[in-house]
Write a structure and sequence with these properties.
The complex is a heterodimer of chains A (183) and B (227). Chain A has 183 residues and is an all-alpha fold. Helices cover 90% and strands 0% of the residues of chain A. Chain A is built from 3 helices and no strands. Chain A starts with a helix and ends with a helix. The chains are: A mainly alpha (183), B mainly alpha (227).
Chain lengths: 183, 227
């Protein structure tokens, strides 16, 4: 084998830079054929696939963006509705509170009026009863006193006017005394 | 030379099958194909040629990259062990295709003025131009295709040679009577494995570099007025 390599290296003293025409022809033909296959089939098919893929991805992105926009629009709407509902609820609550306060005030007022009325009525009744009692007492006490006095004195105090004056003065004294005690 | 045809069959079949299903959610094969295609499309064509008109050049760059890649990888496959571009002819052909392409792109873009744009840099004082213009002509139109092809050819040939030489070296050492010399073959084997790994890396790298330079040349031709 060594001999073969050595003889091959020195054979005819060929210059390695001088090409073999058949070699050139075969390489050229092979390259041309491959180039033809590449231009005709390989590149168009790959480029088509790339283009389709890019389109699919971009289409997907567009779709996703649209969905996103729709979702955010819906969110905005819901938020608006929520705000509106909250405002409404607040308004209703405020109204209810105001109404309640008003009702309470009215009731209080009514109760106060009622109690005042009852009190006043009671006062009036008491006053009139007292008055009646005073009148009846005055008459009775007068009669009793006169009767008593006439019995004691032994004579009829016929002079009505005088006796009435005496009784009145006596009662007035009595009242004054009572008032003093009451004080 | 059969290997070149085989590479065309391998690449064509793989990518046609991978691309054929066209599912939006790719399977394993389709995903691998798409990753490979996107690498050339985005990392080379789009990044270098730029956003608007890179698509026109994707087929060329894609074909170049995988054609060179598979033909290089042959050198790392046992029994085949021969990168196509360790013969200079194939490298010349590809470099010539690229050469014609970028000049055509430049001429179509700027007309014959393109040659002036490519050789007379703007903003250089006129008294330096007599020096700069010949340098530009030589570097752009003469040296560029040569380096472009020889870079690929030389790295592949060197890699191929070094693997072969270490193989022959191991064989030679094993045949020796001396036990120490026999044992030394293990060291050579270790070195050969390391070189094999390095070569595998360079095979991929050179395919990338060749395609990248093609993209850079096309970009330069497209935007000659701004260079």
């Amino acid at each position: 084998m060594n001999q073969a390599i050595i003889s091959a290296a020195t054979e005819g003293g060929t210059n390695p830079l001088v090409p073999n025409p058949w070699e050139m022809l075969v390489v050229f033909a092979g390259f041309a054929l491959l180039m033809f296959i590449v231009v005709k089939y390989v590149v168009p098919m790959f480029e088509k696939t790339f283009a389709e893929r890019a389109e699919a991805i971009e289409g997907g992105i567009a779709k996703a963006e649209k969905a996103q926009a729709e979702a955010s629009a819906a969110l905005e709407e819901y938020k608006a509705q929520l705000t509106e509902a909250r405002t409404e609820a607040n308004r209703i609550r405020e109204e209810a509170r105001a109404e309640g306060a008003q009702i309470l005030a009215e009731l209080k007022e009514k109760a106060a009026a009622e109690s005042a009325r009852i009190t006043a009525q009671a006062h009036t009744q008491i006053e009139s009863e007292r008055q009646a009692a005073v009148v009846s007492l005055r008459a009775e006490v007068g009669t009793l006193a006169t009767t008593l006095a006439s019995r004691i004195v032994g004579e009829a105090l016929s002079d009505d006017a005088r006796s009435a004056r005496v009784v009145d003065r006596f009662l007035a004294d009595l009242e004054n005394q009572n008032a003093g005690v009451a004080k | 030379m059969l290997l070149v045809i085989l590479s065309v069959v391998i690449i064509g079949t793989f990518f046609v099958i991978a691309a054929r299903k066209q599912q939006l959610v790719p399977g394993k094969l389709q995903f691998a194909g798409e990753a490979a295609y996107s690498f050339v499309r985005n990392s080379i064509a789009k990044d270098i040629i730029g956003g608007r008109d890179f698509m026109k050049y994707v087929p060329l760059l894609f074909t170049l990259f995988f054609f060179i890649l598979v033909n290089n990888i042959y050198g790392a496959i046992p029994l085949i062990q021969l990168p196509t571009f360790s013969h200079v002819g194939g490298a010349y052909v590809l470099a010539a295709i690229v050469y014609v392409t970028w000049i055509a792109v430049g001429v179509r873009k700027s007309g014959l003025k393109y040659f002036k744009l490519a050789t007379v840099p703007s903003g250089v004082p006129f008294y330096i131009l007599p020096i700069v213009v010949p340098i530009e002509i030589i570097s752009n139109f003469l040296v560029r295709p040569v380096t472009h092809s020889l870079r690929l050819f030389a790295t592949m040939l060197a890699g191929h040679l070094i693997i072969m030489i270490s193989g022959a070296g191991i064989e030679y050492l094993v045949m020796q009577e001396n036990v120490l010399l026999k044992g030394a073959s293990v060291l050579v084997l270790g070195g050969a494995i390391a070189m094999y790994m390095l070569e595998a890396l360079i095979m991929v790298l050179q395919a990338y570099v060749f395609t990248l330079l093609t993209a850079i040349y096309i970009e330069g031709a497209l935007h000659a007025d701004s260079h």
